[in-house]
């Protein structure tokens, strides 16, 4: 950009700002709109982002992304900042009806619509791509600059008013201007334009008509010849009248032409030293509008006059044309009687039309607002006359109380008063009140209610009636329909309570007996006594009012409420007889139904061992004392002859333990051919015999599945030296299954039990500990750790120490008072009897 152009832009921007400030202080009408505007600051309303950002910063005071009416009205000046991106569009400018100044320096838009900006006074557009510009609606425009190089601008339509004072269209493509009414114009700059025709006001006294040196083109200048003479230098300062020829009857005095009667071509040369260039000026006589015929009309006050859409315009040549006219707005509804001179704008001229309207006094309207009642026709009354009182209106549920001057309040209207203005009278009403009577129909009393017409009666609290349930309020004592309390009251009414007799449930709680069905009994009736229920082990004792306690129910009593009756029972008692079957007497026991009989102390019988109480004298099954008693029962003692070992006497070590072992079937010793028995207490215990002893003891207490163990094929494959012919084979397999003894693994990987090997004391300690552990009886023992021959290298040393601490085996006393265990010593049968008996005592704890 050249320095000259930059300076010019700067000066234009400064001048625009000065003019904008001056214009901003000039008030003008129409700054507020009756309709509120809500304009979104979006791409639909403002497509160009830079223009949208400028408007947002300029006008969006409350920063909400919208422009309200006040914000739009406050925009009177838009000046594009120099150092901002070019505006490609100024769409959205139409929202600013009060805009007075618009300055755009650098833009890339081809058109701009300013039809809505009718208050625009100052317009500057510099360096744009503008192609056309229509300013015909901008009739307040005073200052127009179109600068820069918009060579494409060829179509420029200017406002046909006298307000324009400065026109600069330098360096544009405009080839004609039409300004016949621009009487105030003082300067026109067409530098660098191909202007061919200029229609200017006759007698204009403007300061300059600027055209820079350069190639010249022909000009066509119109003016009004009926104004007398005209000095062409006012339009073309370099005009040289001495070169003029062929004026065809017109007088040419220097540069002043006069007496033109028709079109004429005036040929001349420019006195510029540029050669004999002969452009053309064409003068055309113009016929201009001169006056407008006045319109007259008469209307009645409050009416709007009918005004013509055209008026007759008289021209300077004596002709008359009907031209469209736009009349100024006027509030005819508020116009008082008198004369109104209404102005109008005549299309295509600067002339003003006038309509003189005479407004005459009108009669007054008396309007009757029935205020919800029947309609009453309005009346028309001449000024000063009285209005006739109409027939009273009617309104359902109301009594008419007169005509008033206000809907609420006011004063009662006097129909003897002369009418001097329009008046609206309002019917006043007194609402009817109705009585709602509540007939309780045998129930407790309910108060009568008074309700205004159209209101709803409040549903009262339900009445009560002994033995009955209230079902609601009805329109009849019996039958009728249920009353709807949401329904407005429009007359006196009686409502009736209706009732349903209560039905009560009599429940029979058999209290453990057979089920008795509940009964339904109406209020005041008696419940039928049902058949007695039954209950195993009990005798029925009657129906009572409580599960425990209460009173016996009287079935002759009327039922007045739900009731639950409870069966009362007397428990059966049974006799349990203990038949000692040759033993010492055991007392008979009395036991209530469902209870368990306490097992008595075992009877004794000389030469026999008591084996338990059974359901039969011989055979039968062992009696289960955990079983509830449900009838009389006799249980029988059964005995087995006591085994007497001939090799066991009072001096035999552990004699009592040996006898216990035999009495409990754990070891019965050897039966000899003569019928006698030997225990052989000093024989060592074999491993296969020990398996039998341990399983029999485990079976006695239900330990590790000993009782129900039945070996399967896999069990028989465990030991290669155990088969079905091995003594106590199944006991050995149970011992392995329970983990009490797993035998030995041979070098070939197989396992053996070695049933005929003797049991060593340390192995016995392990077997006994493991059996106690399977029974959960190893806790609470303080291990005996002072055996002199037991260390942590001793096999099963922990089991040995537990055995010592439990008291099952304390070992042997040394001479110095210490103890030894002798773990590798074989176990003798009499010692084994003591160990097992002591373990048994621990198992029963």
UniProtKB/TrEMBL annotation:
<dbReference type="InterPro" id="IPR032675">
    <property type="entry name" value="LRR_dom_sf"/>
</dbReference>
<feature type="domain" description="SLH">
    <location>
        <begin position="715"/>
        <end position="782"/>
    </location>
</feature>
<dbReference type="Pfam" id="PF07532">
    <property type="entry name" value="Big_4"/>
</dbReference>
<dbReference type="Pfam" id="PF09479">
    <property type="entry name" value="Flg_new"/>
</dbReference>
<dbReference type="GO" id="GO:0030313">
    <property type="term" value="C:cell envelope"/>
</dbReference>
<dbReference type="InterPro" id="IPR011081">
    <property type="entry name" value="Big_4"/>
</dbReference>
<keyword id="KW-0732">Signal</keyword>
<feature type="domain" description="SLH">
    <location>
        <begin position="783"/>
        <end position="845"/>
    </location>
</feature>
<dbReference type="InterPro" id="IPR042229">
    <property type="entry name" value="Listeria/Bacterioides_rpt_sf"/>
</dbReference>
<dbReference type="InterPro" id="IPR013378">
    <property type="entry name" value="InlB-like_B-rpt"/>
</dbReference>
<feature type="signal peptide">
    <location>
        <begin position="1"/>
        <end position="34"/>
    </location>
</feature>
<protein>
    <submittedName>
        <fullName>Internalin</fullName>
    </submittedName>
</protein>
<dbReference type="InterPro" id="IPR001119">
    <property type="entry name" value="SLH_dom"/>
</dbReference>
<feature type="domain" description="SLH">
    <location>
        <begin position="641"/>
        <end position="708"/>
    </location>
</feature>
<dbReference type="Pfam" id="PF00395">
    <property type="entry name" value="SLH"/>
</dbReference>
């Amino acid at each position: 950009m050249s320095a000259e152009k930059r300076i010019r832009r700067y000066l234009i921007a400064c001048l625009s700002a000065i003019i904008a400030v001056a214009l901003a202080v000039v008030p003008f009408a129409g700054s507020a709109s009756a309709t509120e505007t809500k304009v979104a600051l979006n791409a639909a309303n403002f497509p160009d982002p830079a223009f949208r950002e400028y408007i947002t910063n300029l006008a969006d005071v409350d920063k909400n992304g919208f422009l309200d009416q006040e914000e739009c009205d406050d925009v009177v000046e838009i000046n594009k900042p120099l150092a901002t991106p070019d505006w490609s569009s100024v769409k959205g400018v139409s929202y600013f009806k009060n805009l007075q100044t618009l300055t755009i320096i650098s833009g890339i838009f081809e058109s701009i619509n300013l039809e809505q900006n009718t208050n625009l006074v100052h317009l500057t557009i510099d360096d744009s791509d503008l192609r056309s510009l229509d300013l015909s609606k901008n009739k307040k425009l005073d200052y127009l600059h179109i600068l820069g190089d918009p060579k494409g601008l060829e179509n420029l339509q200017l406002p046909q008013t006298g307000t324009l004072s400065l026109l600069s269209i330098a360096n544009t493509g405009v080839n004609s201007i039409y300004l016949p009414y621009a009487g105030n114009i003082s300067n026109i700059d067409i530098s660098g334009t191909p202007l061919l025709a200029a229609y200017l006001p006759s007698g204009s006294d403007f300061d300059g008509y600027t055209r820079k040196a350069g190639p010249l083109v022909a000009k066509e200048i119109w003016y009004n010849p009926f104004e007398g003479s005209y000095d062409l230098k006012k339009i073309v300062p370099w005009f040289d009248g001495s070169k003029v020829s062929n004026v065809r009857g017109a007088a040419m005095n220097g540069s002043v032409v006069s007496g033109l009667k028709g079109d004429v071509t005036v040929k001349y040369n420019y006195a510029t030293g540029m050669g004999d260039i002969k452009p053309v000026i064409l003068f055309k006589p113009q016929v201009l509008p001169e006056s407008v015929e006045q319109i007259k009309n008469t209307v009645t006050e409050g009416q709007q006059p009918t005004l013509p859409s055209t008026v007759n315009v008289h021209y300077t040549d004596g002709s008359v044309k009907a031209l469209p006219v736009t009349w100024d707005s006027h509030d005819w509804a508020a116009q008082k009687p008198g004369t109104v001179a209404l102005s109008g704008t005549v299309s295509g001229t600067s002339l003003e039309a006038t309509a003189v309207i005479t407004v005459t006094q009108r009669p007054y309207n008396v309007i009757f607002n029935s205020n919800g009642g029947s309609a009453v026709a309005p009346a028309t009354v001449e000024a000063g006359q009285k209005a006739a009182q109409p027939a009273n209106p009617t309104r359902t549920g109301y009594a008419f109380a007169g005509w008033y001057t206000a809907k609420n309040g006011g004063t009662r209207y006097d129909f003897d008063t002369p009418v001097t203005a329009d008046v609206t009278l309002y019917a006043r009403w007194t609402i009817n009140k109705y009585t709602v009577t509540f007939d309780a129909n045998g129930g407790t009393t309910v108060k009568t209610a008074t309700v205004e017409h159209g209101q709803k009666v409040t549903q009262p609290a339900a009445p009560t009636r002994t033995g009955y349930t209230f079902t609601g309020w009805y329109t009849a004592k019996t039958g009728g329909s249920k009353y709807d309390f949401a329904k407005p009251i429009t007359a006196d009414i009686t409502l009736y309570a209706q009732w349903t007799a209560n039905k009560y449930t009599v429940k029979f709680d058999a209290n453990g007996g057979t089920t008795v069905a509940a009964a339904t009994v109406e209020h005041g009736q008696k419940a039928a006594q049902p058949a007695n229920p039954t209950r195993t082990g009990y005798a029925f004792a009657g129906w009572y009012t409580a599960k425990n306690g209460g009173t016996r129910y009287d079935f002759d009593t009327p039922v007045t409420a739900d009731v639950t009756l409870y069966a009362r029972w007397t428990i059966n008692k049974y006799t349990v007889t203990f038949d000692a079957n040759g033993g010492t007497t055991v007392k008979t026991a009395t036991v209530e139904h469902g209870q368990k009989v306490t097992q008595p102390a075992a009877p004794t019988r000389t030469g026999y061992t008591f084996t338990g109480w059974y359901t039969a004298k011989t055979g039968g099954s062992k009696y289960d004392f955990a079983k509830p008693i449900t009838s009389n029962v006799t249980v029988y003692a059964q005995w087995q002859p006591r085994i007497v070992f001939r090799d066991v006497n009072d001096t035999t070590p552990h004699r009592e333990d040996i006898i216990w072992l035999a009495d409990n079937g754990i070891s019965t010793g050897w039966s000899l051919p003569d019928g006698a028995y030997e225990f052989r207490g000093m024989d060592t215990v074999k491993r296969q015999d020990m398996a039998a002893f341990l399983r029999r003891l485990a079976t006695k207490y239900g330990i590790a599945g000993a009782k129900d163990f039945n070996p399967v094929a896999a069990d028989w494959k465990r030991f290669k030296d155990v088969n079905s012919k091995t003594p106590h084979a199944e006991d050995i397999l149970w011992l392995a299954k329970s983990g009490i003894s797993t035998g030995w693994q041979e070098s070939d990987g197989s396992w053996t039990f070695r049933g005929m090997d003797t049991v060593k004391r340390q192995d016995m300690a392990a077997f006994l500990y493991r059996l106690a552990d399977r029974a959960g009886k190893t806790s609470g023992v303080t291990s005996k750790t002072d055996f002199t021959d037991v260390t942590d290298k001793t096999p099963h040393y922990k089991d040995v120490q537990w055995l010592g601490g439990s008291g099952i085996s304390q070992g042997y006393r040394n001479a110095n008072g210490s103890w030894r265990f002798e773990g590798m010593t074989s176990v003798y049968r009499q010692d084994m009897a003591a160990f097992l008996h002591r373990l048994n005592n621990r198992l029963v704890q």
